[in-house]
Amino acid sequence: MTAFTAAPARSGRGSIRQHLDRRVHPATGAPLLDTDLSNPSAVCGGCAHSVLKKHRDGQDRLKCGLLPRSSRGLRGPDLRDTTPACVNYAAPAASPLSA
Questions:
Q1: Are 41 and 33 in contact (CB under 8 A)?
Q2: How confident is the model at residue 80 (pLDDT cuts 50, 70, 90)?
Q3: Where are the alpha helices (DSSP H) in the chain?
Q4: Of the candidates 38, 41, 37, the residue with the CA atom closest to the CA atom of residue 24
Q5: Which residues contact 46 (CB under 8 A, 6 or more apart)?
Q6: Above 50 in pLDDT, residue 77?
Q7: Could you tell me if 52 and 62 are in contact, meaning their C-beta atoms sit under 8 angstroms apart?
Q8: Most exposed among 45, 75, 89, 97, judged by the fewest C-beta atoms under 10 Å?
Q9: Spatial distance between the Cα atoms of 51 and 21, rounded to a whole number of angstroms
Q10: pLDDT at residue 17 above 80?
Q11: What is the mean pLDDT of residues 60-71?
Q12: Which of 58, 70, 72 is nearest to 27 (CA)?
């Protein structure tokens, strides 16, 4: 009888973190706007290309609008407001002042 040996515990890096480690945006694949990940000058939550997608569970998920919708209706990974922006970052248009 072979003795059972437990696999060593390991904490892996998620795919989004792996992209950021390579200084590549996880959704667009474009280079990040800044190299300083701890203090980015722009984030996805403030980008004009970001869109909120409502899922069946009722929660809103932040997605990149630069990605085409797939056959399953997806637009890549869920992003956070604090995800560092890529070189395609566009500041949101200022809303016109009401007279």
A1: yes
A2: very high
A3: 15-21
A4: 37
A5: 81, 85, 91, 92
A6: yes
A7: yes
A8: 97
A9: 24
A10: yes
A11: 84
A12: 70
Helices (H) and strands (E) in the chain, counts: 1, 2
Q: Is the dihedral of CA 75, 95, 30, 10 positive or negative?
A: negative
Residue 72, SS3 per DSSP? coil
Q: Is the pLDDT of residue 95 over 70?
A: no
Report pTM.
0.73
What's the rounded Cα separation, in Å, for the pair 40 and 67? 22
> Is the confidence at residue 99, as pLDDT, over 50?
no
Residue 76 gets the label, from left (phi > 0), alpha (psi -120 to 50) or beta, of left
Structure tokens at 32: 């990040």
Whole-angstrom distance, CA of residue 78 vs CA of residue 89? 17
Number of Cβ within a 10 Å radius of residue 28? 20
Residue type, 40: P
